[in-house]
Design a protein that fits this description.
It is a single chain. The chain has about 400 residues and is α+β, with helices and mostly antiparallel strands. The protein has helices spanning about 5-25, 35-60, 65-90, 95-115, 120-140, 150-175, 185-220, 235-245, 265-270, 275-290, 315-330, 360-375; strands at about 225, 230, 255-260, 295-300, 305-310, 335, 340, 345-350, 380. The chain has 2 domains: about 5-220, Rhopdopsin 7-helix transmembrane proteins (Up-down Bundle); about 225-380, Reverse transcriptase/Diguanylate cyclase domain (Alpha-Beta Plaits, 2-Layer Sandwich), CATH 3.30.70.270. The protein is about 65% helix and about 10% strand. The strands form 3 sheets. The protein has a 5-stranded mixed sheet, with helices on both faces. Strands 1-2 form a two-stranded antiparallel ribbon. The protein is elongated. It starts with a helix and ends in an 8-residue tail after the last strand.
């Protein structure tokens, strides 16, 4: 690679990172930018400044003695933050301090090599350090491989391969000073430059796509999950109920449904405020979960009405579960900022019948719930058993 080619490649990397910074300025990321995207945007800004400084230093605009160490110091800081963004994307949120330490050590190590400058030692250090940071980013993207999306897996593999190409330039100088047959130092230098360019593109657009992918998953989740209580909403509960409705048409153990409604909940919102009401709802859901098995499911139907699905449970067993939950709610006042709030709940219990639709099932459960309300509330009622035909 000639000196002009090297300068041109540095200029391309500078302009490419500047273009990504411009794209981020106009990117619609919603009211709150995800932490991984914010960290990655910062890394692109730092790397854009680094490559720009190296480019103008190579063109003689800034003295090389200032541009080279300054540009590489910024570059190591930028790729360190980019690796941190990958860790944030992978769910490792404590990346800031290790990244700061690693970036500082990389800058110090490069400056020592730059001052020594023995047999191109600074080039060896630069390629190994850059490759190491990108490999760390690839490892971060590979976190939770089984649950990762295909896009995240692809980015992890591509980043690892390209990082090895970048590091190979330094490794070849250490292990194969004279080159190895057709794998000359010149060829490795060109491959390293191409790999850095591809890393800029792959990680750039990959991070934006991962952000969009995560936003789409969260949107799909919110369609079936109550955001306040983190339990299925009406749609999510009905989706989970559907296969058990189908199984009820076959011989086997019954499946029970419990509906509960908090008694006189309006006084909580009116007397203590909606934040206290939210605290009460979270407390009730937590009490329900403590009384349920892993296979059971609690969901929020509407307002303060909840439903509990109890697979492989008959009506009497479901009534006992409902009674335990009723007692737990009645005996566990909720501590708010202003007072202790006592709550009770009324319950309706039924089992899924072979001929049931969701309408008839919930109508029967609701009839049992209303029976509890009419009987004075804070009690459990079972649905009326259908008469056996002769």
């Amino acid at each position: 690679m000639t000196n002009l080619d090297a300068t041109t490649m540095v200029l391309v990397l500078a302009l490419g990172n500047l273009a990504l910074c411009a794209l981020l300025t106009f990117f619609d990321h919603g009211p709150v930018r995800p932490p991984a995207l914010s960290a990655w945007a910062l890394s692109k800004q730092v790397q854009a400044g680094a490559w720009t400084l190296l480019a103008i230093g190579g063109a003689g605009v800034v003295p090389e003695a200032l541009a080279l160490p300054g540009g590489y110091a910024l570059l190591f800081a930028g790729v360190a933050v980019e690796a941190g963004a990958a860790f944030e994307q992978g769910g490792r949120h404590g990346w800031r301090r290790p990244t700061l330490v690693a970036g500082a050590l990389a800058i110090l190590g490069f400056l020592v090599c730059y001052w020594i400058d023995e047999q191109g030692l600074r080039s060896v250090a630069a390629s190994l350090l850059l490759g190491g940071f990108y490999l760390a980013g690839a490892a971060a993207l590979a976190t939770g491989w089984r649950n990762a999306s295909l896009l995240q897996r692809f980015l992890a593999i591509v980043t690892a391969v390209l990082a090895l190409v970048v590091a190979a330039r330094g490794l070849s100088v250490l292990l194969l000073p004279g080159g190895w047959r057709w794998l000359s130092s010149e060829l490795l230098r060109q491959l390293s430059s191409i790999a850095l360019y591809l890393l800029m593109l792959a990680n750039g657009f990959g991070m934006l796509l991962l952000g969009r992918e995560a936003a789409s998953r969260e949107l799909a989740r919110l369609e079936v999950v109550d955001p306040l209580l983190d339990v299925p909403n009406r749609r999510g509960f009905f989706n989970a109920l559907a296969p058990w409705m189908a199984l009820a048409r076959r011989p086997g153990l019954p499946t029970a449904l419990v509906v509960l409604d908090l008694d006189d909940f309006k006084r909580v919102n009116d007397g203590y405020g909606h934040p206290a009401g939210d605290t009460v709802l979270r407390h009730v859901v937590d009490l329900c979960r403590r009384q349920l098995r892993d296979s059971d499911l609690v969901g929020r139907l509407v307002g303060v009405e909840f439903a509990i699905l109890l697979p492989r449970t008959n009506a009497d067993e479901a009534a006992l579960v409902a009674e335990r939950i009723r007692a737990a709610i009645a005996s566990s006042p909720v501590k708010s900022e202003r007072a202790l709030i006592s709550m009770t709940a009324s319950f309706g219990v039924t089992v899924i019948r072979p001929e049931d639709s969701t309408v008839t099932l919930f109508q029967r459960a609701d009839d049992a719930l209303q029976a509890s309300k009419r009987a004075g509330r804070n009690r459990v009622s079972q649905a009326v058993v259908a008469p056996v035909e002769a």
